[in-house]
Amino acid sequence: MSPGRALGLALAALLAAGPFLPLGGMQEYVIHVMVQIFIWSFIGGAWSLMGRFGLVSLGHGAFLGLGAYATTLLWNFWGLTPWLGGVLAVLLTAVVAVIVAYPCSRFRVIGHYFALVTLAVGEVVRLLIIAERNWTGGSLGVSLRPAGRDSLVAMQFADKRVFYYAAFVLWLLGLWVWARVDRSMARSAMEAIGEDETAAASVGIHITRFKIGITVLSASLTAVGGVAYAQYISYVNPDTLAGIGVSLRIVFAVVLGGMYSLLGATVGTALTIALGEYLRIVFGLKFIGMAETIYGLLLIVFIIFLPSGIYGSLRGLVARVGRAPARAGV
Amino acid sequence: MIEPIFLAEAAINGIMLGGILALLALGLNLIFGVIDIVWIAYVDLVMVCMYVLYFVVQVYGWPFWLGALAAMAFGAALGVGVHLLIITPILGSAPVNQLLATGGLLFFLQSFATFLWTTDHKSVRLALPSWEIGGIFLPATRLIPFAISILALVGLYVFLTRTYVGTAIRAVSQDREAMALMGASPQRIYIVTSAVGGLMAGLAGALLLFQYSVHPFFGGQFGPLTFMICVLGGLGNMVGAFVASFVMSEIISIAGVVWSTEMGYVIAFVVFIVMIFARPGGILARRQ
User: Fold this and answer.
1) Is the pTM of this model over 0.95?
2) Could you tell me the fold of the domain covering B4-278?
3) pLDDT for the residue numbered A228
């Protein structure tokens, strides 16, 4: 067993035992932060499935919002269990993803243009949610109708540990999908497309099929993340789950961690959430906006000085240090 | 059914709004065309300039026109500052990093404004007349900004075509490498461009304060719309951006009267998405 794999297993075991560690009064809070880290890492990982191939989407808030709102509204109005509602929400998101991805690849909308088209899609979803305020609650958001007691059917539990394990499994699932894509033939094809579409097409790569495939996969997983987040927080709001703000936050976390590595999204998300929580606690209600100000400032500094992300830069450093003695020996 | 008079009024309001949108879009488009980086936080710079104007007028009692000049000077300084501190280090980075650096600036400006000035809406009350022509109201708070923005756009056109610096700016936007090969320093042109872009942000802010109140999240109202106008007109294409501003403002204004404000934006964004597929080079580009 390689040291990396052993370390990974040890970390997974620690995380699995997490809720039973004696943390005293901090326990509830730590679990809450960890659940958020798991869910947002999963969403970040879903984004990086596209981002790493040059499909920089600034509209993942659209998919997140569709997933969260579809499940919540189906449950609130018709009492449809989120298990079924979630499946419908993911299907709906996949359809929307195809509607966006097909013309984008057909008409070769790439680079800045792709980013701005997806940004427009994100805003359209946010504004539609606000415009249909009669049944979506508009910009005030809407709360999940409480089931009254712990219920597997309603996916509602009073004990946060249930959500902890659910989010943990979801996160592992996200890592597994990411690793599968990373090792597949599709990865080579997508990398070729990301570098030069004409060259890729000339060696027989079906560009439209691959692009739609990866977009649908990424969008569907993002919708799953939206469902999970809505069930956990039991409140949905167009500004926190759709539109440009949340889309930028997802991208930030992933780029900060490094989008070309398995744990990049997780490292970036954990850092941004930890940083946000730390600043929130330090400044509290005394200086409203100060925490976010420092957060924004640090993001600019990180982007300027660590262009390949924290995890990416660290790994590059470790690789260089590890290789140096071997070379000296030759 | 909506009375035709309301539609006519909406159409006229659309034209008025289009003038200011054109100013915003051309400021952003100038920077994009020359430096090849989209300033996601452009309208948030406008927001900061609006606050400057609000404070010098309401708190320090300056006349509005003097305050507007101060806001423009502040905007120009801000533009140069953003270029030197944030854009210069990332000129060679990956496009996603460039987008995110200015996105970080967006978070920074929004939250710093919240911290300094809270989320209260602040507006400057101006006692200006309003005229009625054939049942349509034409308030001076819309007419004056429209007239000034058209004058400013003419000024920008003259600056870009008739002056030495303006010609240099157009040269860089046509071919960045050729300019460097000729022995000229692109950095100086970048700084001038950022200053002009910032100046336009300041002016747009002053004109927006005629009709809108300012708050830290003001950028979200016009920001995405401004990028879309730039893309719709063709990134770097000034005439295209000008036409696109009026197309978008008419859609928003008329659909806003027929349905609702949000639906106006939704339709404008959908039109944008469809237009990107139909004419990727912008509305004035020739079909390939």
Assistant:
1) no
2) ABC transporter involved in vitamin B12 uptake, BtuC (1.10.3470)
3) 93
